[in-house]
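User: Please predict the structure of the protein below. I'd like the answer in structure-token form so I can feed it into my own downstream comparison script.

Assistant: Understood. Taking the following sequence of 200 residues as input:
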Amino acid sequence: MAKVTAELSMSLDGFVAHLDDSVDHLFNWYFDGEIEVQTANPGLVFHTSKASARHIREGFDNCGCLISGRRLFDYTNGWGGRHPVGVPVVVITHGPVPDNWIAEHPDAPFTFITDGIENAIKAAKDIAGNKNVAVAGPNVIQQCLNLGLIDEICINLIPVLIGEGIPFFGNLAKLPLKLDGPRIIEGDGVTHLYYTVKKD
């Protein structure tokens, strides 16, 4: 059955980015290995351990649509119109739809939703069909967790302490949030932990 999933790389002390949004230590595992992993972006090729390559390819193969918040969309400039996973993207925005960007990327498979996260999830599920919906960005993930919309959390746990930054699990309203798992894949410089969110 298709799932709504959330996946981020996280430091051992719980942060997914530095306060300036940089992710240097947290993304090193994508480029420290010998196995080449192609993305939908010809200019972006990962080099990981064999175990992490399997993890990435499984995620890519199972994903049918990705949900992003407007902040992440703006920060990446919409990934140039093609997300590395190579799937359609639903962008949640509370401001105006970026008409200029849309005009500059007429073939980009992006849908902009202005009426809330629940409608964004519905739109993404319709697009994904029998495949998973992946939610990107800590703020949107936290809002989805608060609404009970996430089925699985994957933490790419990095053995580093960064002291401060943007937390994966800040601003959660419904605590405790109980999980089943983990299923574990041990990479080099990263441990991939999969948890199923228990639904009441």
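That's the full token string. Residues 4-197 form a domain with the Dihydrofolate Reductase, subunit A fold (CATH 3.40.430.10).
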